[in-house]
Design goal:
- By secondary structure, this protein is an alpha/beta fold.
- The chain contains eleven helices and 16 strands.
- A five-stranded mixed β-sheet has the order 3-2-1-4-5, covered by helices on one side. It has a five-stranded antiparallel β-sheet with strand order 6-7-11-9-8. A four-stranded mixed β-sheet has the order 10-16-12-14, sandwiched between helices.
- The termini are far apart.
């Protein structure tokens, strides 16, 4: 009887291990990975050449079709695969269904030429590398997890560092589930409010959070940098446009505090320049007054002055042409959403201003846009014109104190 009970216990333990492996266990840096045999792929296949992964650097690139930066990076990731050939395997991973992904890939210019394998309807990889936001990248070299990062860390130089087994201990870790960083530096407390300000905390995700009780309302910012933090605070009080670089005016001595002037990976730059900030205010305080006070406290901590005001900026204005087009009535995407996508994926373009047409108007969006000429071509096909001009638009102006 004792042997029978022992047999049942061992069997249950083995079964639990098998189920756990099938579901995927959370993996951390230096953990080995045991590849599954079967995965559901966009091209209809169900197997990956996992036996060959042991000698390669495998980049698991988690994405969704609604993530504009994920989609915009597809050409670059394909170029990486071509450059490093058999030394690297880029594997795109999404929880979305085949129908959703296939439909999107059929009409989007960034992904039409994709040659990378795509795992769809994923659960196992996401359970092994849990995350809240994409892009999210797991680096696996010789069947061992060596890094978990944001997409900014995926550069040719960093790939070379992994392949040549350089020290990665100072690489930032993307952990979307880390508890908010505790801040004990430069704390201030008054009867009406309290605030804390501290440096970047390694291992914590970038996060904005608002908590409230019956007496206090608290604003928390973890691992943020100055410009987004200021814009977030201003945005509590008013709706902001897409704040492209033309809308940010810096009258400061040290620009590197605010922008990545050396174009190093954003994660490395953030380690030097990002910060943590928390501030509590009385709940009964008027919301607008509280937001203004929060902005003042934040800018005092940063030792800057900020204004949000009209300035002359070069823009491209889009208007209806004299010759109407049927394309606008037979379009596939609202023009406001489409041109926002164009601006996000083309940060080098100036702000786009739409006039004389509702933002909800449908337009034909199956055009690749990268400059003024290609934008004009796409707009003309939709019965619209594009003009380059200087105009006063709302800008964030930052000065040193």
């Amino acid at each position: 009887m004792k042997n029978f009970i022992k047999y049942i216990c061992i069997s249950c333990m083995l079964l639990n291990n098998i189920v756990s492996m099938a579901q995927g266990q959370k993996l951390s840096i230096r953990n080995p990975i045991k590849w599954q045999k079967n995965y559901k792929l966009l091209d209809g296949k169900e197997e990956l050449p996992v036996k060959k992964f042991g000698s390669k650097l495998v980049l698991l690139d988690f994405f969704t079709t609604s993530c504009t930066s994920c989609i915009a990076s597809f050409p670059f990731m394909n170029d990486l695969q071509v450059k490093f050939k058999d030394r690297v395997q880029v594997l795109m991973v999404t929880p979305e269904t085949k129908a959703v992904v296939a439909k999107f890939f059929g009409k989007n210019d960034f992904v039409k030429a994709n040659k990378l394998p795509i795992v769809i309807e994923d659960k196992w990889f996401s359970e092994s590398f849990p995350h809240k936001g994409v892009p999210h990248v797991a680096w696996i070299y010789q069947d061992t997890v060596v890094a978990i990062t944001g997409k900014d860390m995926v550069t040719m130089d960093n790939i070379d560092k992994v392949l040549t087994k350089k020290d990665l201990s100072k690489w930032p870790i993307k952990d979307d589930f880390a508890i908010d960083a505790a801040m004990d530096d430069n704390s201030q407390e008054e009867d009406s409010y309290s605030s804390m300000f501290g440096p970047y905390k390694i291992g914590y995700p970038l996060k904005y959070r608002i908590d409230s009780t019956s007496q206090k309302i608290a604003y928390h910012m973890t691992n943020v940098d100055a410009i987004p933090a200021v814009l977030y605070t201003i945005g509590l009080e008013r709706k902001l446009p897409l704040m492209k670089k033309e809308r940010i005016i810096l009258n400061v001595r040290n620009r590197d505090r605010f922008v990545n002037v050396d174009s190093i990976p954003k994660s490395f730059w953030s380690q030097k320049n990002a910060f943590c900030f928390s501030s509590e205010w009385p709940f009964e305080m008027d919301a607008s007054q509280r937001h203004r006070a929060l902005l003042k406290e934040l800018t005092n901590r940063l030792n800057i002055r900020v204004t949000y005001e009209p300035r002359d900026v070069k823009v491209w204005v889009i208007r209806p042409s004299k010759q109407k087009s049927d394309a606008l009535s037979a379009g596939d995407m609202e023009i406001g959403n489409w041109l926002t996508f164009v601006e996000v994926t083309n940060p080098h373009l100036p702000p786009l201003i739409i006039e004389g047409i509702p933002l909800s108007t449908k337009a034909v969006s199956s055009y690749e846009i990268s400059d003024l000429a290609s934008l004009k071509k796409a707009m003309e096909a939709n019965g619209l014109t594009v003009g380059e001009t200087a105009r006063k638009i709302d800008c964030l102006v930052i000065d040193d104190n």
